[in-house]
Amino acid sequence: MTTVVIGSDHRGTAVAQAIESQLRIEGFKVHVLGDTSGVATDYPDAAWTVAQEIVANRADRGILICGTGIGMAIAANKVAGIRAALALDELSAQLSRSHNDANVLCLSADLLGQTLVKRIVDVWMRTKYDGGRHARRLAKIARIELGEDPKG
């Protein structure tokens, strides 16, 4: 069973709760991390917490939500082993998984409606990584994380 961890800042709380319900109904194991009361929180804190669950292999995938999704993507991608992708539509969600093997989905609470968020999450969760020529590129990303020239 795929385990998904969800984190958000205060602007993403309602979206995080909706995603949690959606994923539970679809049969995923889901953990919402951090403060979900709506009290002002800083997005880097949620990004760090979700990323640590993934790199420690306590979760398979993560979903992060803030006002635009941009801050979450920037913060999460600072953690080695995280491939966080901002998706604003179904195609970017699908390609982030099939080409980039994204393990964290970043979403905008302010720019996306509830119906679109549901579709994006559904596509992202169902899409498999293609491997093949994309594996070479992921290996280069791993080298960059080590501070090495990706060209080898």
Give structural notes.
The protein has one domain (3-145): Ribose 5-phosphate Isomerase B, Chain: A (3-Layer(aba) Sandwich). Helix 1 packs across helix 5 and helix 4 (90-98) packs parallel to helix 5 (114-126). The protein has 6 helices and 5 strands; from the N terminus they run βαβαβαβαβαα. 45% of the residues lie in helices and 16% in strands. The chain has a 5-stranded parallel sheet with strand order 2-1-3-5-4, sandwiched between helices. Helix 4 links the parallel strand 4 and strand 5.
Secondary structure layout plus pairing:
Blueprint: E1 3-8, H1 13-25, E2 29-32, H2 43-55, E3 61-66, H3 70-76, E4 84-86, H4 90-98, E5 104-108, H5 114-126, H6 133-145
Parallel strand pairs: 1-2, 1-3, 3-5, 4-5
Helix pairs in contact: 1-5, 2-3, 4-5
Q: So, the CATH homologous superfamily? A: Sugar-phosphate isomerase, RpiB/LacA/LacB
The span between the termini is 36 Å
Largest sheet: 5 strands, parallel
The low-confidence parts are none
Q: Looking at CATH, which topology would you report?
A: Ribose 5-phosphate Isomerase B, Chain: A
**Count of individual helical segments:** 6
* Relative strand content: 15-25%
What percentage of residues falls in helices of 4 or more residues? 40-55%
The number of distinct structural domains comes to 1
| CATH class category label | Alpha Beta
How are the strands of the biggest sheet laid out side by side?
2-1-3-5-4
Reported CATH architecture: 3-Layer(aba) Sandwich
